[in-house]
Specification:
Radius of gyration: 25 Å
Order of helices and strands: EEEHEEHEHHHEHEHEEHEHEEHEH
CATH architecture of the largest domain: 3-Layer(aba) Sandwich
Strand content: 25-35%
Shape: elongated
Number of strands: 14
Helix content: 25-40%
CATH class of the largest domain: Alpha Beta
Distance between the termini: 35 Å
Number of helices: 11
Strand order of the largest sheet: 6-7-8-3-9-10
CATH superfamily of the largest domain: P-loop containing nucleotide triphosphate hydrolases
Length: about 300
């Protein structure tokens, strides 16, 4: 399911919760929605699901405007909100059958839809238990089960592993990966390992605005190279700074024999071609090349950098 969000904003009184955000998500992408508490994540998810209307802008799901045809979109959408949408006094299976009815799943398909959701979330053993008798982890699985009823083409999951133990978390991640083969998934979580394990791409919010939209493969690679050289002629740094492919050169360490530099690449340069040219310059000037690599940055560090202004 393809999602197009164009310049959406949402105010609550005088507070601007979401400020002019635009993005596009293609079919079968798994996208992580990150941000500090109050950054606008939950508000965006509610607007994507049709439970809140944007004050400005519009949302199209598979070309269908959410504003004019919310029920059409919601038939193919599963939503797990932060506060679980369960009725504590109901039996698990009865609740899921009720949720399937609300989802407009045909009566002839409801029983199979409930069985599939129970099996997928490892809830068969609790199918006839009252929801209020379940542990926090089992209640969370009931919430996920209602979200995946009927194989929705779009899944919006707010903290899906909240309250789960390590083994349950491992199973939930495996389930989300399986669901992503046929669904588009938007995942909000505070657990960076979860984003690394599941997501193709991240959207990072800061104070209601979209601060970063990037694929993980691009984001973690960065635009830097680490260079370690020995027998380094004085002219090497100056020559590196003159290269069009290099935006800046910073000396990290120097023990008199071996020097380590951090090289910021020009935004338009190809990293492989840049590395080749830098290595060529070192060797041409008689230096010894000990290391030339692109450091992999962890997502937590990137998140701190992007959201630093609200810390």
């Amino acid at each position: 399911m393809m999602i197009e969000v164009k310049n959406i904003s949402r105010d609550f009184g005088k507070k601007a919760a979401v400020k002019g955000i635009s993005f596009r998500i293609d079919r079968n992408e798994v996208v992580g929605l990150l941000g500090h508490n109050g950054a606008g994540k939950t508000t965006i998810m509610r607007m994507l699901c049709g439970y809140l209307e944007p004050c400005t802008g519009n949302i199209n799901i598979n070309g269908t405007p959410m504003a004019s045809k919310p029920q059409t979109v919601q038939r193919n959408l599963g939503y797990l909100p932060e506060k679980l949408p369960v009725y504590p006094g109901m039996i698990v299976a009865d609740y899921l059958e009720y949720a399937a009815t609300l989802r407009d799943i045909a009566p002839s398909h409801r029983l199979e839809a409930v069985r599939t959701a129970l099996s997928s979330t490892n809830l068969m053993s609790a199918a006839f238990d009252p929801i209020n008798s379940l542990s926090r982890g089992f209640k969370q699985r009931v919430g996920v089960a209602q979200a995946i009823l009927g194989h929705p083409q779009l899944l919006v999951l707010d903290e899906p592993t909240n309250g789960l133990d390590p083994e349950q978390t491992r199973h939930m991640r495996a389930l989300i990966k399986k669901l992503a083969k046929r669904s588009t998934v938007i995942l909000s979580t505070h657990i960076m390992q979860e984003v690394n394990a599941l997501c193709d791409r991240v959207l990072i919010l800061r104070d209601g605005a979209l601060a970063l939209d990037r694929y993980l493969s691009q984001l973690q690679q960065g635009r830097f190279l680490l260079l370690r050289v020995g027998n380094c002629p004085p002219s090497l740094r100056e020559k590196l700074e003159q290269l069009d492919i290099v935006a800046a050169v910073k000396e990290i360490s120097n023990d008199g024999e071996i020097i380590e530099y951090s090289l910021a690449l020009d935004g338009k340069s190809d990293a492989d071609l840049a590395a080749n040219e830098i290595a060529r310059q070192v060797i041409f000037r008689g230096g010894q090349l000990y290391k030339l690599e692109a450091p992999i940055r962890d997502l937590e560090s990137i998140f701190r950098e992007v959201t630093a202004s609200v810390d």
